[in-house]
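Ticket opened by: R.M.
Priority: normal
Category: complex prediction / small molecule

The reporter submitted a protein together with GLP and asked that the result be attached to this ticket for the collaborator who will pick it up next week. Submitted input follows.
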Amino acid sequence: MNLIIVEDYQELSLKAAEMVASEISQNPQVVLGLATGSTPEGMYAELVKMNRHGQLDFSRVSTFNLDEYAGLDAEHEQSYHHYMYKHLFSHVNINHLQINMPTCEVSDLDHFCREYDQRIAAAGGIDLQVLGIGGNGHIGFNEPDHQLRVQTHLVDLTVETITANSRFFSSTEEVPKQAITMGLGSIMLAKKILLLAAGKNKAEAIAGSLSGLITTALPASLLQLHRDVTVIADREAACLIT
Ligand code: GLP
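Result attached by the on-call engineer:
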């Protein structure tokens, strides 16, 4: 894994945006896998700036989001759908027909999950997958477990994740208990992966994922098996790496 340690969140956001921008410049039809959460917000802000300044063209880019809560409709302000429009899609010249987001708001969820994976495959797979990491090492919403799923699926969120994400809701009770997430298959088949981590609450997960045993108890540790992973971590998130 290629590890880049940066001073602070601002530098992380800029470096991450530069890497995404470089992929778009090299291949205007690039297929991006996108993440939500507080970590990539700064990166999206930088990408919006580049687009506004005419330095970056999203018109032929396709995107596939990693995950979405179950039980929140797209308009809910904590839905990942809402997040993506708020931080990126409403501000850049992306073709909205090329935006793909998973959702549980369908009559046949199993069919939707299969179809989402087929859509990714039909687009030629993901060229660059952006990932954050949960404090428990989850990627997307692939939670620590004794086994991990390959395909897009419905997942029960762990107490750790519900507690961590309760900061976005007025109470823990309001946090959805389930979500839909891309499985490890689409993530590991991405040609490149960019993992972002900021803050000391990510330090243990980052240290374990980069150099510890590969285990489904720490989903991000599986990334050690991927050929092209770049990790951008700030000093705090990197402080336990040996
Ligand atoms: C959420 C998302 C993940 C994200 C992670 C970290 O649960 N499903 O995709 O990477 O938590 O979020 P944050 O960046 O807010 O710490």
